């Protein structure tokens, strides 16, 4: 009897364990998320039914893009940042304007957003909509592309909540300028600007780590070289920069992270500790008493940086999002549906997804 009970118990236990393994596996795949709160209307599994292959479509296409041009990883991540910090993550930065009504693209901070990266986002939208119908917004696609830009550059992989809708308007030049701190900003200015958006010092330093990949134009930092050299800049680093940027008006470009320019890692912080940060907004993080310790910690502990970056960028990706019946799902990322002569009314599938999102 004891043996029989033991055998029965083992079988029951096995079934229970199997069930728990499946359950845990289910949640680890879809809901093992950063520790940040989720904005109302977003979900970790928003497109599971309406577009189950969404994330693989985006990632597989970007693998091909980055194989040909790894520079687009930083370009897509930058678009994601510039979109979210100006009136929220609503893909408004992708909208075209006109001579009389210039869009966010025409504001100075966005002059150097790469057109080919914008095209990549539109290509992704076309692929996703061809497969699933018009049920995924350009804002969600921009978010996924930003996440995959990090992962496919050897950075951390992480889940992102989805369900954003696309904005119907773009920000003015003044609003864009006010919400995108420039490369000459001090650490105090960054802390004030982002602090007003509920980002703490660790968030600010972690988000600045996006500069571990990418390139920039000389005129973004030549004020630190000419007419006199910024004393906080390491001498040999400055000498080499002057070879790339021989005058204050040179239009050349250089890498943001001299150690591993195409790899998303913590070497950006090693640059700062070595006084080899390119922008004032970067290097001053090491000299500011509120951020110096964080920079030093990240330079020594890549996992710590990754963890803080994932939480901060997930928080950023939920800023002032449009959800539910707000906004729209664009049929072309650069054009509002009301201005798109090829636009077709919402499909039954999209309406069903909208109703599901309200549950």
TrEMBL record:
Name listed for the protein in its UniProt record: Uncharacterized protein
Higher taxonomy: Eukaryota, Viridiplantae, Streptophyta, Embryophyta, Tracheophyta
């Amino acid at each position: 009897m004891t043996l029989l009970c033991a055998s029965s118990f083992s079988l029951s236990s096995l079934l229970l364990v199997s069930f728990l393994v499946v359950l845990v596996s289910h949640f680890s795949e879809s809901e093992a998320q950063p520790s940040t709160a989720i904005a109302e209307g977003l979900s970790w599994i928003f497109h599971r039914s309406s577009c189950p292959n969404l994330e693989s479509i985006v990632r597989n296409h970007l693998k091909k893009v980055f194989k040909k041009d790894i520079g687009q990883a930083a370009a897509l991540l930058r678009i994601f940042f510039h979109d979210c910090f100006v009136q929220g993550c609503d893909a408004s930065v992708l909208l075209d304007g006109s001579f009389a009504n210039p869009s966010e693209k025409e504001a100075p901070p966005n002059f150097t957003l790469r057109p080919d990266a914008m095209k990549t986002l539109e290509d992704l939208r076309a692929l996703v909509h061809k497969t699933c119908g018009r049920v995924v917004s350009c804002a969600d696609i921009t978010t996924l592309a930003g996440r995959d830009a990090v992962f496919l550059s050897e950075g951390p992989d992480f889940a992102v909540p989805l369900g954003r809708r696309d904005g119907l308007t773009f920000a003015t030049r003044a609003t864009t300028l006010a919400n995108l701190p420039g490369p000459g900003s001090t650490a105090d200015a960054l802390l004030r600007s982002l602090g007003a958006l509920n980002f703490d010092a660790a968030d600010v330093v972690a988000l600045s780590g996006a500069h571990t990949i990418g390139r920039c134009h000389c005129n973004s930092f030549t004020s630190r070289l000419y007419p006199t050299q910024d004393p906080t800049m390491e001498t040999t680093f400055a000498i080499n920069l002057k070879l790339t940027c021989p005058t204050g008006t040179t239009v050349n470009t250089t890498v943001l992270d001299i150690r591993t320019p195409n790899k998303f890692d913590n070497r950006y912080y090693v640059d700062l500790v070595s006084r080899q940060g390119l922008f004032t907004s970067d290097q001053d993080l090491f000299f500011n008493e509120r951020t110096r310790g964080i920079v030093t910690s990240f330079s020594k502990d890549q996992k710590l940086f990754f963890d803080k970056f994932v939480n901060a960028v997930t928080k950023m990706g939920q800023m002032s999002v449009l959800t539910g019946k707000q906004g729209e799902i664009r049929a072309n990322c650069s054009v509002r549906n009301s201005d798109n002569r090829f636009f077709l009314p919402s499909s039954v599938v999209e309406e069903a997804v909208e109703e599901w999102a309200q549950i």
